[in-house]
Amino acid sequence: MQYITNYFAALAHDFETVFIAKDRYMQMVQGIVNTMKITAGALVIGVAIGVIVAAIRSSYDKNKESLKMRGGLGYIVLSILNGICKVYLTVIRGTPVVVQLMIAYFVIFVSVKDGVPIGIFAFGINSGAYVAEIFRGGIMAIDNGQFEAGRSLGFNYIQTMWYIIIPQMFKAVLPTLCNEFIALLKETSVAGYVGVMDLTKAGNSIAGVTYNYFLPLLTVAAIYLVVVMILTSLVARLERRLRKSDH
To answer: What pLDDT score does 128 carry?
Structure first.
């Protein structure tokens, strides 16, 4: 019993030394804020890129035969755009996100000192490639009768995509998109490579000063775990609600 008492007393002392002394816990707070900023901003950019790339890729896949037979400028433009999208997907998904982040920081935005917007940009570009394939799968899974219904209502192809196909696609892929958000949250842990005080960087910084790696890193892991568990619970609740709305 005395051993347990001494252990918790030592743990409380270490906690005070690691986090309370010199207000080091504020680094963790700043890290959480920066992590959420980067994740949320990157998700917005990723969704925007994903919608555009998925629309181009699915439009080419669904209409390339008819457009090829008709020829003309429309087929040429769509083929070029599809080729650009394929190169983008190949490069982004084929290289590590930490390398992309460092290229953005040390090469593209070398004059920018704040790493948070650069992190949002880099992770957004990376996430966009994966979100695009999620969206493309959702669009390709929608029955062609939905396209024909849009045309029968007098919509052109773009209007049919915007008003009929994309809303259905979002509903179909929303749980998968939420899982991408969870993965993106954990990927931002490498933002410290470009000097961003994210959650992981905050833990490492405190550990380096106090020479206590157990408490800071355990706290970082616990925070990530709690956030992911909350998001996972929200995704599960969303999936149940979507299943109910289908009946």
So the answer is: 93
- Is the pLDDT at 110 greater than 90? The verdict is no
pLDDT tens digits, 142-192: 877 777 787 777 787 778 877 888 888 877 788 788 888 888 998 888 888
| Amino acid code (one letter) for 88 | Y
Does the structural domain 2-246 have CATH classification 1.10.472.10?
Answer: no
Minimal CA–CA distance to 89: which of 26, 46, 118, 149?
46
Indicate the range of 33-37, 119-123, 210-214 predicted with least confidence: 210-214
* Domain residue extents for the chain: 2-246
Cα–Cα distance, 115 to 106 (Å, whole number): 10
